[in-house]
Amino acid sequence: MDRAHAGSGHRPVLYAQVLDGLQVRADGIYLDGTFGRGGHARGVLERLGPEGRLLLMDKDPEAIAIAQAEFAGDARVSVRHGSFAELADWSATADGLDGVLFDLGVSSPQLDVAERGFSFGKDGPLDMRMDPTSGESAAEWLASASEREIADVLWRYGEERQSRRIARAIVARRAQQPILRTRELAELIASVLPRGDGRIHPATRSFQAIRIHINRELGDLEAGLDAAHARLKPGGRLAVISFHSLEDRIVKQFIARHAKAPPASRRMPVVPDFTPTLRAIGDAIKADEAEIADNPRARSAVLRVAEKLGIGNRESGIEGAGSSPASPDTGGASPLSGRFPVPDSRFPHLGAGDAP
Hints:
The chain has 356 residues and is of the alpha/beta class. Helices cover 36% and strands 13% of the residues. Strands 1, 2, 3, 4, 5, 6, 7 and 8 form an eight-stranded mixed sheet that branches. The protein has helices spanning 3-6, 15-22, 39-47, 61-71, 108-112, 138-144, 147-158, 163-176, 182-192, 204-214, 217-231, 245-259, 289-294, and strands spanning 29-32, 53-58, 77-81, 97-103, 232-242, 278-280, 285-286, 302-308. Its EC number is 2.1.1.199.
């Protein structure tokens, strides 16, 4: 086992492909916005010289504790607890970055610990927060959200066709007793769904959707991409690993929007000037059969890499600050800004006089 894997039993997905995509320079400044257990970060650090810098971020306090303990003696490494959506707020990024990595979704160690509440395969408290010290848990949200809001989240973020049926069951069950355990929720969902082909657990899409909502994952992704784009130096690389279609669609469209001129429109006879600021590096990269056999989690991983070209159309809305208008903390069912399409709501739009 090499040093990149030595800090834990965790195997980073698409490890070699990420390092190839970042093209790490010995004197560069790199940010890993999802440290996790540090597999990719260790690989970057091994390629840095004495003048290089590695900036580490994570929402998860446990991940931050591991990073601080392991790299406390390395002057090249700085660690910050928080979402990568806020990376431009960190003064350490002010001079620009030569590379940014986001490894999205939940990490294998988080799934393996029942107490974190991410997995329906292990009974534990229904939490699902990447940062257990902040915000409401999945159990708290399910206890207070309306049936409509629950169904909307399941449809938007899990593309769950039976979202309304599941939401009705959740509301009916919580009227009798609170839903506090992962197994209880998983069994409830399975009990109201028609028998499937058995390839995936009936609760898979619902657990994904609730986790995405609780952690504002897609809103944070939009803001993080904007912040990375603002902080990358010309020639710097952005590498993003996604694990489901909603994430990958956002990343793909973000890169395309900064790399390609918008299509001509008859309604706009004068085409505005466009200067590309990103260049897509190759096509989407997926794990090969050997990696999937060694690490089944890699099956759904998609890596996209882009290179910063220079100053062009100003769209990020970041003038040296990390907050982005792309990700307001609305507290509602959809934290998205609407720039990237997600499945429509299962409910028609209600007018002011309609019942909620």
